[in-house]
Amino acid sequence: MITRKNSVAYLDGIRGIAAFGVFLNHFTLAFYSAWWFQKPELSHLNGLEMEYTNSLFSFLNNGGFCVAIFFVLSGFVLSRKYFISKDIEVLMSGLHRRFLRLYIPVAFALIISYILLTSHLYFNDPASRITLSEWFIKQWRIADPQSRLLSSLFFGTMFTGDSSLDTCLWTISSEFYGSLFVFAFLMFTHFTSRHRLFMMFLAMYYFYVMKSPFYLAFVMGMTLCYTEQWIKKRRTILTSFYAITLLVTGLLLGTVPFNSPYADTWQETIKNTIWDYTPWCNTIAAYCLILAFVFSPLLQKIVSLRLFRFLGFISFSLYLLHPIILGSFSSWLFLQLYSTRGYNPCVLIVFTATIVFLLISSWLMAKYVDQFGISFARKVYDYMKNPFVVTKEQIAFVRKPTPVAKNMAMK
After folding, report:
1. CA 69 to CA 77: how far, in whole Å?
2. By C-alpha distance, which of 230, 262, 222, 292 is closest to 79?
3. Integer-rounded Cα radius of gyration of the chain
4. Contact at 8 Å (CB) between 278 and 261?
5. DSSP letter (8 states) at residue 165
6. Do 221 and 73 contact (CB within 8 A), yes or no?
7. pTM for the whole structure
8. Sign of the CA dihedral with 360 first, then 149, 166, and 136 last
9. At 84, phi and psi to the nearest 5?
10. CA 242, CA 296: separation in Å to the nearest integer?
11. pLDDT tens across 322-378, in order?
12. CA quadruple 360, 366, 367, 372: dihedral positive or negative?
């Protein structure tokens, strides 16, 4: 398994689990959408989907919760190295490299989706007529794929969150802008670090007023750097209690759906009691969850296991590829098996095969595309920083005095 340099194992593990949670969200939306729409007529499990939605385990495939985890992690990881080194060069490097680091894998996913669409290899439409998914049937309905691909590549996805070719790409613009804000904020406060924490709270208040929970998540992620430094010096027996309390709180709030709580449920009671804007629940839940891991070495050790680190390595590729695979391979396999097997056994086979196919393809993309994007962005930054490589011979030639210089020296 390949690991990224300067990565923190437990943070990679959390990211990998969150990426897999987004996959679970979209898989259940495609094959068991009754849990989301709360419509009994869409059920394939005699109403068990609705009961699951109202259970304490619904955080497992809450896509909004998982996306909030990504953003809090980004705020934490992107600022962590700077907080350790206090070197502004870290911020300059990250600021210059961020676009290419995100764009290259995104562009690859867009091109793959375009090829599948124009080759008529998306089978989500006929599959969704059997699965009864109102969400799945709306995907990849594009009148002019070529113009949509060009607009997505050159502007739409990175800057406006166009997700028509890949439904998960709506988060990319937020990730990009949020990352730029982190670097810019830390650079702005580089020489006024004594007031930085206060300015973070001002930024959080601003995003709270503007109802921007995802950008708020980036700022909250930066504050974890202070917590990490503080907890290293003051770890006590109570730290484990704090970690358990934060973990339970995070998972409990992580069950609240991203769009709106379901009527007459305990999730709606939480929302009405604490916040009047539902996405705050997911943002606070993500912050509490990651804070619990910062507090607890035991939790860090658990998510640092090889399996979770592997998921962390392929997390970005898995996030980008899984909707494409669901619409093509998974839907095709479902249609092949459905006529000879019952619905639920068929979905179980599809689920298992999809995981295998997804893990292999995500690993290949992570190794050959994502890693290339990271190294290429670094090389471009190094070239922009030092555009001319001066050899020793050139230096010696410049230092060697010319005949005119010798005569001037003698005079």
Report:
1. 12
2. 222
3. 25
4. yes
5. S
6. yes
7. 0.89
8. negative
9. -80, -45
10. 9
11. 999 999 999 999 999 998 888 999 999 999 999 999 999 999 999 999 999 999 999
12. positive
CB 369 within 8 A of CB 105: yes
Contact in structure between 17 and 303 (CB atoms under 8 Å): yes
C-beta of residue 198 within 8 angstroms of C-beta of residue 261: no
* Residue owning tokens 């375009």: 114
**Segment 226-283, tens digit of pLDDT:** 998 888 777 777 788 889 999 999 998 888 876 655 555 656 666 566 555 567 888 9
Residue pair 145/114 in contact (Cβ under 8 Å)? The answer is yes
> What pLDDT, on a 0 to 100 scale, did the predictor assign at position 6?
52
Q: For residues 145 and 42, is the Cβ–Cβ distance under 8 A?
A: no
> CB-side exposure of 109: number of CA atoms within 13 Å?
33
Alpha-carbon distance 344 to 44, whole Å?
8
Q: Would you mind telling me the total number of residues written for the chain in this entry?
A: 411
One-letter amino acid at 405 equals A
Amino acid at 56: L
Residue 19 one-letter amino acid: A
Chain position carrying tokens 């009047």: 276
143: tokens are 């009148």
Q: In the structure encoding, which two tokens stand for residue 123, read together?
A: 């089978």
Residue pair 104/373 in contact (Cβ under 8 Å)? The answer is: yes
